Amino acid sequence: MVSVVKRMRKLQAQLLFIRSGPGAAILPPEVARIHMDFALNTTKGHHGAKQFWRNHLIRLKYHNPAVPMTVNRTEDASGPALMTLHFSSPSGNTPNPSNPSESTEIPTTTQTIDMRNLESSAIFAQLTALTKARVLRTDLEDAKIGQDLEEQEARNNRVRELMQAAMARRKREKAILAQARGEVEALKNET
Amino acid sequence: MASLTPCLTQLSRMCISAGGGTMPHRISTQILGPALQIRYKSKDNKPKASRSELAMKAKKLVEKRKKRKPRTTFRQYDLSDGEQFALCDAIRYIRAFEVGRAPTSVKYEISLKLKTLKNGPVVRNRLRLPHPVKTDLRVCVIAPPDSKFAESARAAGAALVGEDEIFEAIRNGRIEFDRCICQTDSYAKLNKAQLGRILGPKGLMPSPKLGTVVKDPSLLVRDFIGGAEYRERLGVIRMAVGQLGFTPDQLARNIKTFMESVKKDMGLLSDKINKDITEVVLSSTNGPGFSLNGEFKNSKSDIQPKDLSTS
């Protein structure tokens, strides 16, 4: 296995990414399920949906571990990109008839967001408006960790530059030496 | 996973305020310390060493190099440098990393780091987990097709049973199974068929050493279906221990069974060989690895196991 320090440094950045940032929000208890439908191909306006899944949905899932969140990706990029929000009790102004599979347990209402041609941040804004989710800000401790990581990265970059310069110099010297040796050999052969 | 840089820029742009949920795990950067070593020529402030002194130094260096022996055991790391997680916290992070993925195709994995010799015997076995991870395994049984063993193997769920027709199929490159078992009486016939060159590299060749040549294959078939194999490679044992859809309790039971089995195997090795488990890491198909501390639930965090049981 890789050394613990190396592993931890990477893990630390990944966990920070998932704890805080756009998408970190606490959903109210009425939200029963979130389902996303979009295409595998992102060219025809499905890009924002994919970005939302990759960046926002994982944070949302971290802060709301009990809410089921599913993603279904279709082959057809000309189809719709929809997000369906299931609420356990009626809320919002346009309650649709609940879908049959859910209705056996708890009566649910659903609302949809059309994600086509929307940026991921716009999708998140619509989601928070519909669900009245509480958006979390980065807290002090996480900000401190973020700052530390940033400083470390800057330090690493400085060292990287130094090392690159040193290695280039070494390589140059070696090349010069090799060339000189070659010339000596050539002279010897001539005589 | 997105790279570090955009995440940091987002953070620095964001307004800073206290609050939010309880977040049990933060690894302080102080513990981690600098990971990089800088090697470059320092500026010469010291008085220059004399020629004889330099020669002495060079001599010492050569001696030191001669003394250094190659490492015979796998390298161990100081675990106090890193954070360890309770099972439920690790599951919470992993479920977030795997959001939107199919709950049956994404697997939880366990890696056991061992303290062991590089050239000693390796731990290798198979076991039946209380909650099987992979259930669609195709097993091939080599036995005379009209014997009672063939019948019982078919009843136990073997996909292919037979002798000559299977040999012929394998020679033609049709290997439609993931495991292969041989009945003791058919073993000579199998050896005569010379399939070792085809099956050997795939790890499918039955051999008494591995326990895949048996008197009654039906018992083994039952073990294989819903069973799992593990072996030690480079001082680490890795195995899939669960599907993403498993509840924390199910996963904990599987991990416990796996660990007990590995410990038993280590005990069965000869007295001279001493192996120890030094670290247990839980990871998943797309997620990072979390070093486990052996607890089920962190007393400080408010996460409930039933919250982690939904799809």
TrEMBL record, chain A:
Residue runs in coiled coils: 149-190
Pfam family name, one: L51_S25_CI-B8
SUPFAM superfamilies named among the record's database cross-references: Thioredoxin-like
Localisation: Mitochondrion
InterPro entries the UniProt entry points to: Ribosomal_mL43/mS25/NADH_DH, Ribosomal_mS25/mL61, Thioredoxin-like_sf
Domain Ribosomal protein/NADH dehydrogenase: 41-134
Domain of life per record: Eukaryota
Gene Ontology CC, one term: ribonucleoprotein complex
Low complexity: compositionally biased ranges: 88-108
Annotated stretches, region: Disordered: 85-108
GO molecular function, one term: structural constituent of ribosome
UniProt keyword annotations, A-Z: Coiled coil, Mitochondrion, Ribonucleoprotein, Ribosomal protein
Entry annotated with the keyword rRNA processing: no
PANTHER family: MITOCHONDRIAL RIBOSOMAL PROTEIN S25, SMALL RIBOSOMAL SUBUNIT PROTEIN MS25
Protein's UniProt name: Ribosomal protein/NADH dehydrogenase domain-containing protein
Organism name: Oidiodendron maius (strain Zn)
TrEMBL record, chain B:
UniProt GO molecular function: structural constituent of ribosome
Matches recorded under SUPFAM superfamilies: Ribosomal protein L1
Superkingdom assignment: Eukaryota
Gene Ontology CC: mitochondrial large ribosomal subunit
Keywords per UniProt: Ribonucleoprotein, Ribosomal protein
InterPro entries assigned: Ribosomal_uL1-like (IPR023674), Ribosomal_uL1/biogenesis (IPR028364), Ribosomal_uL1_3-a/b-sand (IPR016095)
Residues making up the signal peptide according to the UniProt record: none
Positions of region (Disordered): 292-311
Family designation: Belongs to the universal ribosomal protein uL1 family.
Stated name of the protein: Ribosomal protein
Organism: Oidiodendron maius (strain Zn)
